[in-house]
Amino acid sequence: MTQCFSLTETRNWCYRSTFTGSGLRSTIIDLKDGTIMHCWIPKIQTESKPNLLLIHGLGANALWQWGNFIRNLTQHFNIYVPDLVFFGGSYTTRPERTEAFQAECVMKVMELKCVRSVSVVGLSYGGFVAYSMGVKYREFVEKIVICGSGVCLEEKDIKDGIFPISDLDEAANILVPQTPQKLRELVGFAFFRAPLVAWLPSCLLLDFINAMCREYVQEKKELIKAIAKDRNLSELPKISKPTLIIWGEQDLVFPLELGHRLKRHLGDNAQIVIIKNAGHAFCAEKAKEFYNVLMSFLVDSKPPGQR
Fold this sequence. Notes:
By secondary structure, the chain is an alpha/beta fold. The protein has 13 helices and nine strands.
């Protein structure tokens, strides 16, 4: 029986309306190398506003991850929200799966849109991409916000048991869920207090999976596995621009120790804010607190509760 109504697609439509109503437009960019990028960009770029690049993580799409903040952020910044490769409307025929490649693709979009400088905010996997941009494009990036991103993890951490799941294949199956049970597991790991979605009937969870998680499944799993491959903290370059690290106190996806490790790695150049009683999805669990911390850093460079 053909499905006629989708709650997930309805919410997608609402978020798209929010983005367009906030002064953004959807655009497709052909990078001429086998890569197509989709990005939300300002309908009109305001010269008096600074530029802000928002990079999503795994799980729900960029619309869902940034939809609750976009109206407020567009009042202060020229906002750019790309779909990373293999998410939303972005894809490639090239074999690369690293965050460095993702950063390269996002940077090409910025160049083609004549963006000369930008501050970057990356959620989870998006934080890996943001960090890579800070390393490769130092003159372009002004400030960087890393949100619950295990940039400082090492390949040996997986074997040492720092993560609740030490098998990368199983972790990828949860992070790219294909069944209601795996989606429930993902929600359990991402939130400190499981939201109502964890108790929804399987048919509604399948609706979300069909809308969000069915495309480029293998490619997304390859992205996840590439994160830890040959990763060594001693080889991680330091970024020189002002950096804010935001972490959920009860994060199970990337444990808080990785946030402290990143702060030690960057030294005085970085500030860390820990959001209490929140997990990996702190931007959803503590949306107001997250927004206030973010704005304080981007506007004033002094986030509340810094440590």
